[in-house]
Specification:
two-stranded antiparallel sheet; 7 strands; elongated; about 50% helix; alpha/beta; Nucleotidyltransferase, domain 5
Length: about 350
């Protein structure tokens, strides 16, 4: 008895399945006929509803390929994939955004840090950002760091700053006197804070005289590692031997290239513009006295752009509470120093 009922159930189910499949086949064929009727010029025109219908049929009906005539089966598959992309694009736009965006300010700061510190990696920069209260991941830091060649190298500016205490420049310049004599001024400039450390005046410069000036400029353990100079013949054999014995390495500029020794050339230009162009020199002693006064002003008073508008010997800041502003003449009144002093 049970087997009889089971057999009847199978027959009814198969009949219903056959009837449903037949209805789907009729729907598919009628739809294709309607599409062909509204198409003109021999080209099949399929709209969005047609695509959605065939995508739906391809998902539910295994035999859809056998009854599809107006387009290729691969076309229906491409419609399905396009619909899948559109669906997820819409779904993502309706929900909450994903990972929050990193602000342009933070991205610029990460790039600035990586450029200024070529030896730092993402963990080091990430640690600095955390100390600044900026909450980003280390992966984000690595993403926005400046890309550079490996291994990283410091900039020329950083190299010069690291070695500036070991660099000095020397040079001569001439000054005419009231009697049309020519005096020679020898200047030694330490690159550290643009500090003139020695000068002297002579009417007859020799290699031995210049050698003696180097000994006076660098006593005991103050000898720099490098001295930058031009190729003047005044630096003779005895001078070179003396400098070598002092443990100093000479760096020579190219012929007729004063721009390769810029710091001392700038110092000489400042001496001329701010002092000697306004004075008539009478003798060696008067020139020595004038230059001593100017170098005193240059080292303790005159502000420099390259030193953050400070003097080579740092000047103290006088706030308004120190008193009234007073004017102190220097270099014979060519320049002045301003300070605050209590009344």
């Amino acid at each position: 008895m049970r087997s009889l009922f089971f057999s009847l159930f199978v027959i009814l189910r198969s009949s219903f399945q056959t009837r449903a499949a037949l209805q789907v086949e009729v729907l598919a064929l009628r739809h294709q006929i309607n599409v062909l009727r509204r198409s003109h010029g021999g080209r099949v025109r399929v709209n969005r509803a047609d695509r959605l219908l065939w995508v739906w049929l391809s998902r539910l009906w295994s035999g859809w390929r056998s009854f599809l005539v107006i387009v290729k089966p691969e076309t229906v598959i491409s419609w399905h994939r396009k619909g899948f992309r559109l669906y997820w694009t819409w779904k993502c736009s309706q929900g909450l955004p994903g990972r929050p965006q990193v602000s342009q300010e933070v991205r610029d700061l990460i790039r600035k840090m990586s450029l200024a510190n070529p030896l730092w990696g993402a963990p080091r920069i990430h640690g600095e950002l955390l100390k600044l209260g900026i909450e980003v991941t280390q992966a984000t830091v690595a993403k926005y760091m400046a890309r550079r060649r490996k291994p990283p190298s410091q900039s020329w500016g950083a190299f010069l700053k690291n070695h500036v205490k070991e660099l000095a420049s020397i040079d001569f310049f001439v000054v005419p006197t009231v009697t049309f004599r020519v005096l020679f001024v020898f200047v030694v400039l330490a690159h550290n804070r643009r500090r003139p450390i020695h000068f002297n005046v002579t009417a007859n410069p020799t290699s031995e005289w210049t050698e003696q000036q180097m000994l006076e400029a660098f006593p005991w353990d103050s000898v720099p590692r490098y001295v930058l100079r031009d190729r003047d013949s005044i630096y003779g054999e005895s001078f070179r031997k003396r400098v070598q014995a002092m443990g100093i390495r000479e760096v020579l500029t190219a012929p007729q290239s004063p721009w390769q020794n810029p710091y001392v050339e700038r110092l000489i230009g400042s001496i001329r513009r701010e002092c000697l162009d306004h004075i008539i020199v009478s003798s060696e002693s008067s020139l020595r006295r004038i230059l001593k006064s100017y170098f005193q002003y240059y080292q303790h008073t005159r502000t420099h752009l390259s030193l953050g508008k400070d003097a080579p010997e740092p000047r103290a800041i006088h706030p308004p509470g120190f008193g009234a502003v007073v004017e102190i003449p220097e270099v014979g009144g060519l320049h002045h120093r301003y300070e605050r002093r209590a009344a």
